[in-house]
Amino acid sequence: GAGHWGDFPARWQAAWPGRRVLVPDWPGNGARWAERSPATVGGLTEALRRDLRAQGVALGSEPVGVLALSLGAMVSCDWAQRHPRELAAAVLVNTSLRGHSPFWQRLRPARYAGLLRRSIQPTPAEDWERHLLAITAPLHARSPGAAATLIDWVRLRQHQPVSRANALRQLAAALRYRPPVTPPPVPLLLLSGAGDRLVHPACSMALARAWGCPLRTHPEAGHDLPLDAPDWLIEQVRHWLQAEAPTDQ
């Protein structure tokens, strides 16, 4: 959910102080944890668009830039393909798309098997979140800020729990999504972490080759790039916007 972004939205806002920064939750996550999650990427896209309209975003007339991670990147890709006039640019972080990479790279089996075992077995919330943090953000997990992040994640797990059913629906959405053969007609930047233990970095490389879009890879960061290397991420986006999207408003 939105709470898992930590202080990154504030960092992003500081980098672009004239922009309005929104961190929406889709059904089944965050503040909307009690709602039923759509089981398709298209359904998640439409839920996101409805939420943004409800927050006063004039889609189609107000330029929207998107930064999205993993499944969120799939949703952004679908959004850009079906409603390109609504997006000014999209930055996709550590994503993988069916048809561009083999299944074993898109979902590294050993890591997901371990997470599945822990989800089935009774596991204290703090142990679960510590394990998840070590897998998704290995650099941050070894930093002084890890303890505070762990406290936040345990609190979110207790107050905004993602049900097993919603987690499975979102996993099904990711696995079933068929991306477009050609890139969406929106400026795209791909970012990845060479230390990603959930999705193989080769997935972003394959997508960059297929779509001819730029890819920047952090040499050590993991799957949760905004948590592991927030300043690096912001600088990559800043340089890209300056060099490749000079009309950005």
TrEMBL record:
Tagged with keyword Protein transport = no
Q: Does the keyword 4Fe-4S apply?
A: no
Gene Ontology molecular function: any one: hydrolase activity
One of the Pfam families matching this protein, by short name:
Abhydrolase_1
Keywords of the record, alphabetical order, are: Hydrolase
What InterPro entries does the entry give? AB_hydrolase_1 (IPR000073), AB_hydrolase_fold (IPR029058), Carboxylesterase_BioH (IPR050228)
Domain (AB hydrolase-1) spans 13-229
The protein's matches in Gene3D superfamilies, at most eight in alphabetical order, are given as: alpha/beta hydrolase
Superkingdom, natural source: Bacteria
Q: What is this protein called?
A: Alpha/beta hydrolase
Q: What is the species listed in this Swiss-Prot or TrEMBL entry?
A: Ideonella dechloratans
